[in-house]
Write a structure and sequence with these properties.
Sporulation and spore germination, alpha+beta, 2 domains, elongated, 47% helix, coiled coil
């Protein structure tokens, strides 16, 4: 960076000398103008290189601070884990449909929303759900999930008409929702139960009776 600055100073001095000489020797004005133009272009190039070096220097400073903060001399890679998204067979048997990759230190509610997004997409025809909050109730952490009913347009999926009807369909719906959010085999920090609502209201349908109350892990 210092070398670039010295080059710029040298070029400026050259320009000054050329200008002085040009005043004395008008016959060589054309040659001087070409030389001055070349030197000016060189200055622009060097200034650009200097700016790039400054930017690189700042980036290196940031990396050094990150290395110091890690305490180990190496940059810490963020750990990730896979969480399964479940569906169900007609007999209610749980099956893994897909998995979601999350950062281990991601907030728990964020993990829940990621699971809900993928569950709605893969199992429930694109229907959506919102992981609202995790509340402590009687010493247990309960996740609240609100199912968002479909638009009602022709051909659009509906929780009520597509997934809460029939004993078989209802059983499959309960299994997919509860098992995906409860993650019973997960050994890390998790919720103790889940409570579902439909558009903010209690779910009361004959074929999904378990969705009307809190389901514990």
């Amino acid at each position: 960076m210092k070398k670039n600055m010295l080059k710029i100073v040298a070029i400026l001095m050259s320009l000054t000398l050329l200008a002085a000489c040009g005043n004395k020797e008008n016959g060589s004005a054309g040659v001087n103008e070409d030389t001055v133009k070349q030197l000016e272009e060189k200055i622009v190039s060097l200034e650009a290189d200097n700016a790039a070096l400054k930017e690189e220097n700042e980036a290196l400073k940031v990396e050094i601070e990150e290395l110091k903060a890690s305490g180990s001399g190496e940059l810490i890679e963020e750990e990730e884990e896979e969480l399964p998204v479940f569906g169900a067979e007609e007999d209610g048997t749980m099956t893994q449909v897909i998995s979601v990759v999350v950062k281990t230190d991601e907030p728990l509610l964020t993990k829940m929303q990621m699971l809900g997004d993928k569950l709605g997409e893969e199992v429930f025809g694109g229907l959506t759900m919102k992981a609202l909050e995790i509340k402590e109730e009687d010493g247990k952490n309960i996740l609240y999930v609100d199912l968002i009913e479909g638009s009602g347009e022709v051909g659009a999926k509906s929780w009520i008409y597509d997934y809460f009807q029939g004993s078989t369909g209802g059983n499959m719906t309960e299994t997919a929702l509860t098992e995906t959010f409860l993650q019973r085999e997960y050994a890390g920090v998790w919720v103790d139960g889940v409570h579902f609502t439909l558009d903010g209201e209690k779910i009361e349908f004959d074929h999904v009776p378990n969705l009307s109350d809190t389901i514990l892990r």
